[in-house]
Amino acid sequence: MNAAPAVDMKQVGAVLARFEKGERSHLVHLLQDLQSEIHYLPGEAIRAAAEYLDVPLNSAFSVATFYKAFSLVPRGETIVKVCLGTSCHIRGAPVVVEDLRIGLGVGPGETTPDMKYTVEVVNCVGACALAPVVIANTRYIADVKPGTIVKIIEEG
Amino acid sequence: MYIYIDGKKISAKDGESILEVANRNEIYIPTLCHHEALDDVGACRVCMVEITHKDWGGWRNLVTACLYPVEEGLVISTSSEAVRRSRGTTLDLLMARCPTSDVIRWMAEENGEISVRYEQIDDGSKCIMCSLCVRACERMGCNAIGTVGRGHDKKIAPPFFENPENCIGCGACAAICPTGHIEVNDTRTTREIWDKKFNFVACEGCGEPVLTEEYRDYAIANRDLPADYYTTCSACKKKKLASHFDKVGS
Amino acid sequence: MGIANRKELEARRKALHKANENVKTHVRVCSGTGCAALGAFEVYDALVKESKKAGLPVQVELEPCGKEKDPLFVSLTGCQGFCQIGPLVHILPDDILYTGVKVSAVKDIVEKTLAGGQVVEKLLYKNPEDKKRLKGRADIPFYKGQELVALEGCGSVAADSLDSYVASGGFSSLAKALKMDPDQVISEVEKSGLRGRGGGGFPTGRKWRSCVSAEGDERFVICNGDEGDPGAFMDCCIMEGDPYRVIEGMIICAHAVGSSTGFIYVRHEYPRAVERLSLAVKTCEENGLLGKKILGSDLDFDISVARGGGAFVCGESTALMRSIEGSVGEPRAKYVRSVQRGFRDKPTVLNNVETFACVPSIINEGSDWFTSRGTEKSPGTKAFCLVGKVVNTGLIEVPMGTSLRDVVFGMGGGIIDGRPFKAVQTGGPSGGCLGEDHLDLPVDFDALAKAGSMMGSGGMIVMDDRTCMVDVAKYFLKFLMEESCGKCVPCREGVYQLHAMLDKLSRGEGEPQDLEKIQRLGKEIQVSSLCGLGKSAPNPVLSTLKNFREEYEAHVNDKRCPAGVCRDITTFTIDPDKCTGCLVCKKACPPDAISGEKKQVHIIDQDKCTQCGACRLVCKFDAVVTN
Q: Are B32 and B176 in contact, with CB atoms under 8 Å apart?
């Protein structure tokens, strides 16, 4: 387990300031912005968001754990998302997951010890025609052939 | 308006649920996630009843009695074949999830023969995710616990699984839990719940535990009753009152 | 520059129309998710740059008083459909469709086609049947039989340009609707027979009318862009490629039902859709098409774009509304419908993206025009995503009633590598799988439902003999198990148990009575669950059990997976007669279980093999066989 880096509360405050104080309906949106800024949702950030929007902490924690977009633990520099949509599934996505497990040494939801890669599986990214698809951060890798994905990702 | 439950014509008011009308008329419909003091959510699916109406051309539907609003002429069956099947399946599924719960077993036996067995999940948990505890805690105004995650892994826990800051040890969650899943360990002077320890306020009269210190402080701050109201147990309050009346009488 | 009223709108359109007419050549670069993934943005940049370098009169925006004579208009459009062979560059008026365009090919396109007026043969689509090159969309089988209504602007208008939308006739429908009485608008939608494109097929007009008759001092219009069905991306394409059409549809609805506040809920997995819609909303606000007194009428209407948090269940209307309110997306019972008590307990119309995208055409062309296509009970057209083991994958729109055969073997061009067809999955996790005997089924809401599947949002996933139906059913159950909100017992516990039973089957541990048990539990989950997700969760397993029972029986009785997918009961071996010793499988094998030298028969080490099937996937000679 890696020690979580200290959270920059100034950074958190800057994100909060973009939203109307006390407006509970912004919770999902606000947590999303915090996550894209910090790359995960540290406890302090969830607490700050709950306080700012006047949402009870139990609800904020429920929301943060309900939606798949949120991660409560730090993630790697590159987030490798393997699409497991139906089309990808039947066109070989399970093999891609296998390749990553062997090549990077981590399975879905796990991060390499050097914090370089986090492997995630997602349900359909809307590029079904190019199945199977992998997204490394914002880069789409289409029609991934068996045995190729680790090299493609490591070469950047 | 009038509705029909199991063939009986019963008067009902607009805005009532089927369950409310049934309860008022002492017609038994089993429930697990219902409590009259809390809003219904329709989560446990045990109060399923079958409804139809003379104008529906024979169409019937299974609905939860706790949420379905009554309407004029509604015909309700609380134990038709379809109701028993649905309820039986739900209880079977719960028995697989919480094999150690007596309440579920008893309710399943009450419903009829248990015919199908599912893969048991033996993690010792009796939680059926009815969320009564969460709703009770929210109603208390404490919001100390909530649902965590989703799907089959959903749990009830305090935020971050840490001992809950807002918990005042009132014990409402444990009291309302239908399966006795929530553990509360009381001694004469202390209470432990959600891994948090509390000290009891001792009754000024008899020394019996009355309520936790945190609960007392919370009640003083949020209710319009004098502070000394919370330092006497209900038995002593009664005694005090009785002796007061005795004096007045003599 | 704002558009204060209808007159200004018409003036703007006229000016833009003229500008559009002056354009001599349109170069449309597809920037749909597929093409973008394959490098469409780089191709676009290169096209602009190279054309300028060649001294061509390039325009990247419609300029009503442009300086250039006979300009060349280079634009980024939404999805042009044929994702399989992207990036696509479509050149008009000559209808030349260049496929698989790489940056390195741009120079050729500029020099030979745009400057020289010649066609670059090698960039044209090659028909796999006779290896002939086909020039344009008019010749390519994938586009034949399609009819675009919801996708009309997707792939033709410049996706981020209000001007381009207005030039193509955009907002004229809104102008017309605002002249009509709200009741008239609703009647027109009712008469069109438009049914919700999100899956259920509820009549849109009826929904609007019940919202109007519901009591409430405030009404909401919500567009559901939480397209969660895996294998479906129609709404994504519309939101990315023609965002103004969706907004126009919503404003018309707001006028019809009397709403002043709208939301578009987009799933966060579609970052470009969020970006383009947000931009489109902002542009509309700046131009007076959203906000106060729209087009000089009394209508005030604002739209906010809300991002989903990654939860399939939020496609369910009540969960979606809870999510916009900032809560956990748990559905509530719909005994009181959301048109009466929806968002913030007020009457709410919720339609999906494609439904709103159909509205402008219906108002403009009239309901008769709409009902003249499609079937009696399902008028109009429907967008589908044709994906899976089919030769031509992509986005299509066809009149309702088109047969599955026409779609799969006509537009789709049949099965990859000429393998046998097994099934089409429609309706996503709520739908089912239809086999060979359903191929001539006319696709509409009722026919699909009757056959045990459903329309869903429009994903069509084609499966061949190497797709295992037990595995597909298990796949959907796993999906739903993870996506269930966990609130009600039949869905949370029942789907878990169904998955456990199918898992047992796929491991070869199934018993004959299990099939009965699966069927019974499935039926009870359907009637007992709280929301649509739970009620439809057993559909994939029940439909495959009905239509492909013998495959289930093979798993139970013979402990064998005929498709060679279920790992625990499948062994992979190499047929020495077919193996050419090409090394391809050896390289692809994740656990290095294959040995053999070049041009010598390869052998799979059964102790190392994890049965992942990578070798079979890559073998061109059909040499990898299963038991």
A: no
In sequence order, what E strands does C57-203 have? 58-59, 72-77, 89-92, 96-98, 125-126, 133-134
Q: What is the ipTM of this complex?
A: 0.93
Q: What is the side-by-side strand order in the sheet with A78-83?
A: A110-111, A117-122, A78-83, A134-136, A139-141
Q: Which CATH number fits domain C381-464: 3.10.20.600, 3.90.280.10, 1.20.1250.20, 3.30.559.10?
A: 3.10.20.600
Give the separation between CA C432 and CA C29, rounded to whole angstroms: 36
**How far is the C-alpha of C454 from the C-alpha of C433, rounded, in Å?**
9
Residues C487 and C494: their CA atoms lie apart, in Å, by: 12
With a CB cutoff of 8 Å and minimum separation 6, the contacts of C86 are C30, C32, C34, C35, C38, C40, C99, C100
Is C467:C423 a contact under the CB 8 Å cutoff?
yes
To which residue do tokens 């535990």 refer?
B209
Interchain CB contact of C37 with A (< 8 Å):
yes
pLDDT for the residue C580: 95
| Average pLDDT over all residues of chain B | 93
Q: How distant is the Cα of A108 from the closest Cα of chain B, in angstroms?
A: 17
Superfamily covering domain C169-371: NADH-ubiquinone oxidoreductase 51kDa subunit (3.40.50.11540)
Neighbour subunits, C (≥3 Cβ pairs < 8 A): A, B
- Could you read off the pLDDT of C283-297 as tens digits, one per residue? 999 999 999 999 999
Domain boundaries, chain C: 6-143, 169-371, 381-464, 469-557, 571-626
**What residues of chain B lie within 8 A of the CB of A59, using their CB?**
143, 146
A87-128 pLDDT, tens per residue? 898 889 999 999 999 999 999 999 999 999 999 998 888 888
Would the CB atoms of B146 and A43 count as touching at under 8 Å? Answer: no
pLDDT digits (tens, 9 = 90+) for B52-63: 999 999 999 999
Mean per-residue pLDDT, C325-341: 92
Q: What are phi and psi of C378, to 5 degrees?
A: -130, 75
Alpha carbon distance A41, A35 (integer Å): 5
CB proximity under 8 Å: C 367-396 to A: 385-389, 393-395
Residue B106, class by beta-carbon neighbours within 10 Å (0-12 exposed, 13-18 middle, 19+ buried)? Answer: exposed
- Mark out chain B residues that contact chain A at CB-CB < 8 A: 134, 137-138, 143-150, 158-160, 165-166
| A137 in contact with B, Cβ within 8 Å | no
Question: Under an 8 A CB cutoff, do C231 and A32 touch?
Answer: no
The minimum CA-CA distance between B169 and chain A, rounded to whole Å, is 16
Domain with CATH 3.10.20.740 in chain B: 2-111
* Chain A: closest CA distance from residue B46 (Å): 25
Cβ distance C245 to C360 under 8 Å?
yes
Whether chain A has a CB inside 8 Å of the CB on C299: the answer is no
What class does CATH assign to B2-111?
A: alpha beta
Residue C594 CA: distances (Å) to CA of B22, C427, C583, C601, C625 = 69, 39, 9, 10, 14
CA atoms within 13 A on the CB side of C558: 10
Q: Which residues contact C100 (CB under 8 A, 6 or more apart)?
A: C38, C85, C86, C87, C123
CA A64 to chain B, closest CA, distance in angstroms equals: 8
Whole-angstrom CA distances from B114 to B27, B117, B153, C276 are 23, 8, 26, 55
Q: Is A123 on the interface with B (CB under 8 A)?
A: no
> In this complex, is the C-beta atom of C533 within 8 Å of any C-beta atom belonging to chain B?
no
Q: Across residues C267-288, what is the average pLDDT?
A: 94
Q: Which helix (H) or strand (E) holds B175?
A: helix B172-176
Question: Chain B: residue nearest A72 by CA?
Answer: B160
CATH class of A78-155: alpha beta
User: Which of B33, B28, B173, B176 is CA-nearest to residue B94?
Assistant: B33
| Per-chain mean pLDDT for chain A | 92
